[in-house]
Design a protein that fits this description.
Length: about 240
């Protein structure tokens, strides 16, 4: 396993209260030919990390895309895999996600065991991450693929207890997910309560489509925000996020 440089950098940024922003690129939707032009915009923006992953991705598409991305940016590339087949040694790190909001053993521990023989052979920084899916107004791909129910957005106690359990289990990052294309992002109230209760870095994603929602997430306490769909739909969003 690589030295924990990406995690150390995240911790350092959190300590300095720097805002981290990840662009999520889904190999299933992103056309590799677009990489150069797309990353020119990414590099000119306040984006700090590149996440690569999707719910259903053709076997070698992730490796191909990560390789292309690496040619056009120096930002750290972190895998955000929907499945074991999306693990590629070309990336810098891997979010080793356990879907602790759900009760499907495959996504709590099963796929992780499957991934080990691959991870032993490659040099990838592994980031143990507690992943919580929060209800967001419509059924999302995460819900369908994992066959789990999201946590109710009004049941604050279960949300903070689940987050805390993740921290006590030793997870190093907590990820509050509304789901890609969510109608409602994770609320400010949820972000603030979770942030107050845990000491590990907090990632928030799903349904964040404009600068106001991005600011709201940071104000509430998100250390890193992840945005995918808004950049896919309208690349002019990058212009609002120039350095
Ligand atoms: C990352 O799945 C999200 O947590 C990305 O969501 O595509 O809605 O930005 P969007």
């Amino acid at each position: 396993m690589k030295t924990k440089s990406i995690y150390k950098n995240i911790l350092a940024s959190v300590h300095l209260k720097e805002r981290l922003l990840a662009v999520l690129v889904d190999p299933d939707k992103f056309c590799v030919e677009k990489t150069k032009a797309f990353f020119k915009k990414v590099n000119a923006s306040i984006i700090t990390h590149v996440f690569v992953g999707g719910s259903t991705v053709e076997e070698r598409a992730t490796a191909r895309l990560v390789e292309a991305i690496k040619q056009h940016t120096n930002l750290p590339v972190v895998l955000f895999p929907g499945d074991v087949t999306q693990i590629s040694e070309k990336a810098d790190a891997l979010l080793f996600l356990s879907l602790i909001s759900g009760r499907n053993p495959e996504y709590l521990i099963g796929k992780h065991i499957e991934a080990i023989s691959k991870l032993r052979k490659i040099n990838l920084e592994v980031l143990p991450t507690g992943y919580l899916l929060i209800e967001s107004g419509k059924k999302t791909a995460v819900e369908t693929v994992t066959n789990t129910k999201p946590l109710s957005r009004s049941d604050m106690q279960t949300i903070i207890d689940t987050a805390k359990a993740g921290e006590y289990l030793g997870m190093q990052i907590l990820y509050l997910e509304a789901g890609s294309g969510a109608l409602q992002p994770v609320s400010k109230a949820i972000i603030a309560l979770v942030k107050q209760d845990i000491a590990i870095p907090l990632i928030v994603g799903g349904g964040i489509k404009n600068k106001e929602q991005l600011e709201n997430a940071y104000h509430a306490g998100a250390d890193m925000v992840v945005i995918g769909t808004a950049f896919e739909d309208d690349e002019s969003f990058f212009d609002e996020l120039k350095k």
